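Before the break, one more example. Copy the sequence into your notebook; we will annotate it together after we see the structure.
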Amino acid sequence: MQVRIKEGEINLPDFLLVGAAKSGTTSLYQYLKQHPQIYMSENKEPWFFSFADIYKEEVHNFSGKGDTVTDFMKYVNLFRGATNEQVVGEASTVYLYLYEETIKNIKKYHPNWKELKIIIIIRDPSERAFSHYLNSVGDGSCNSSFEEEIEKWNIKQCSDLWNIIDYGFYYNQIKSYKDTFGQVKIYLFDDLEERSALLAQDLYRFLEVDTFFKPNTDLKYNVSGNSGKFLRKLIYKPNLIKKVVKTFLPIETRTKIKNNILGKFAYKSNLENSQRKILKEIYKEDITKLQDLIDKDLTRWLRRN
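Here is what the structure looks like once it is written out:
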């Protein structure tokens, strides 16, 4: 949406895709980005509303993420390419997890925040935590076993802001968005896996754009996998090969290459039954409250073995 500030008219988001991490947000981002009537920022996760006005060095120390946008005018620049006919949005998974700071900054920086549409996608928190763990092992930010990560949470030794267990307590996160914004759309990762085309159509309907547009929903984005040290560096760490490939190949081609590499050389890791049993107990109360809040049957999250 266009808003006026002292410098003139600028574009700010009409909607935010706020999470949760490892729940299909990258796929939704791509479905949105493919639509000609939707403009998505090239920086998929600017994180602005969570870290506005914080020194970038401090953000980097928290996350190791170097492309976080903390300055308002730099955030505005992300949307300069949008036309008046396009719906404008961005996707930052941390917005759900850090909901308190995020909502506070949305109200502070977005003049028309009451009109914002919020899109949320969530996943079985046990599966989400394990996928997040695999990703953290892959990028080198975690060297402990998954059992050790659960145990650290159980004995309250998690000082890390990005604790992978805490990400999965969705109830307070989603309730705050529903209490603040009038238009909140919630999807389940299971729906993305089983009915991606129908989900995309419903997403377009929510944003009031052409629902007859058919995105490419065949690819899986941001797939996690366990791999050797060399492969981890090649896929997850900044390097010259990735820089060159990104310059010449579109994201669809790069994603196919990455998925093929992981499929051939990464070994499959599954959440063990003993781990799942512990996690289900951790999340049980939150899931029970959540399904009433969002009016969706989540009992399968508690039944899975």
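Strands lie at 2-5, 8-11, 15-17, 38-40, 87-91, 117-122, 183-188. Residues 15 and 116 are 5 Å apart (CA to CA). Try to locate both features in your own notes.
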